[in-house]
Amino acid sequence: MDRAKAALAGSRFEDLRAVTVTGSTNADVPVLLAERGPTGGAVRPLVLVADHQTAGRGRLDRTWEDEPGASLLVSIAVGLAGIPEDRWTLVPAAVGAAAVDACAGTRLKWPNDLVAPGSGTEGVDLKLGGILAEVVDVPDQGLVAVVGLGVNLDRSSVPGELEGVATSLDRVLGGSVDREVVLLDLLVGLDERWLPLLEVSSTPVEEFLGAYRARSATLGRRVRVELPAAELVGTAVDIDATGALVVEDDQRVRRTVAVGDVVHLRPIPD
Q1: Whole-angstrom Cα distance, residue 128 to residue 20?
Q2: Phi/psi of residue 59, nearest 5 degrees
Q3: d(C-alpha 61, C-alpha 65), whole Å
Q4: Is the C or the N end of the chain the one with fewer CB within 10 Å?
Q5: CATH 2.30.30.100 domain span(s) along the chain
Q6: For every one of its 270 residues, what pLDDT tens digit does the chain have, with 9 covering 90 and above?
Q7: Which among 192, 263, 197, 151 has a CA at the least distance from the CA of 13?
Q8: Regarding the domain with residue range 2-213, which homologous superfamily does it belong to in the CATH classification?
Q9: Whole-structure pTM value
C-alpha cells in the first residue's frame, strides 16, 4: 500500500494501515482507535486494509468469504462529531457512492450492495460487493462510524456456487484490476467529494441525495422488500433524507423502509 499511503499524505485518510490476514477489519478498527488514544479534538480517520479475512461479516450476521489477495477488504473509521446528527445515517451511503465511482460499471442496490446491473443471465444484477456499517463509542474520542467494504476484484474470488448471483470487477471491466488504485480512488472521492457534502451543514442534503440517487440500481425498479415479519412489493421511488427507501405499493400507497432486504423483480408485462 506504499503508493496509496504516499498519495494520501496530508489528507484525512493518511492513517492507512494494512495487514495480511485478520478476523474482521471492522472488529479491529475500534481497537486500533482506542490504542491510538485521545486526539485532543475530532477523531482522526483511520483506514485498515486486509489481504484476507477469516471472519468477515455482512449484514444480519451473514458471513463474507474471500480468497486471499483477490478482494478489496477495507474498513474506514470516520468521527461523527463533524457531521450533523441528522446526516449520520448517510455516512454508509457516502462510502457506497464513492465505491461506485471507484468501480466503473457498478451501481448501488439498496441498502448496502454493490452490483453490476444487468450483467447476469436474462439481465439479472450480479453482486460484487457489500457494506457493513457500525457506530462505536471510542473511549475519550466519541462516536465513530466504522464502515466496512468488501469488493470482489478477481474472478477467482467468486465461489462456483455463486455463479449467476455474484461477479467480480475484472469481469465487469474486462481486464485485470489494481486493488491499490481502486482503494485510492475510493478514499480520495470520499475525502474530497462525498464527506464534505455531509459535513457542511449549509450544503443542502438534497445535493448529496441527488448524486446518490443517480448511482442507484434500485430506484425505478419493481422490488420485493423482505421485512422482519412481512414483505412489501411495489416500485422503489425514492431515497429519503435519512437514506431510507421509499416504496410505492400496488395500491399507490408509499411506505418508508429503514431496514430490510431488497429483491429486484422483473417488470410486470404490459
Answers
A1: 21
A2: -65, 155
A3: 13
A4: C
A5: 222-264
A6: 889 999 999 999 999 999 999 999 999 999 999 998 766 667 889 999 999 998 766 554 555 566 777 899 999 999 999 999 999 999 999 999 999 999 999 999 999 999 999 877 777 899 999 999 999 999 888 899 999 999 999 977 677 777 788 999 999 999 999 999 999 999 999 999 999 999 998 899 999 999 999 999 999 999 999 988 889 999 999 999 999 999 999 999 999 999 989 999 876 554
A7: 192
A8: Bira Bifunctional Protein; Domain 2 (3.30.930.10)
A9: 0.92
* Residue 270, burial from CB neighbour count under 10 angstroms (0-12, 13-18, 19+): exposed
| Residue limits of CATH 3.30.930.10 in the chain | 2-213
Look at residue 243 and give its three-state secondary structure.
coil
Residues paired with residue 19 on neighbouring β-strands, in sequence order: 50
Residue given cell 444480519 in the structure block: 60
Residues 6+ apart with CB under 8 A from 200: none
CATH of domain 222-264: 2.30.30.100
Q: State which amino acid sits at residue 83.
A: I
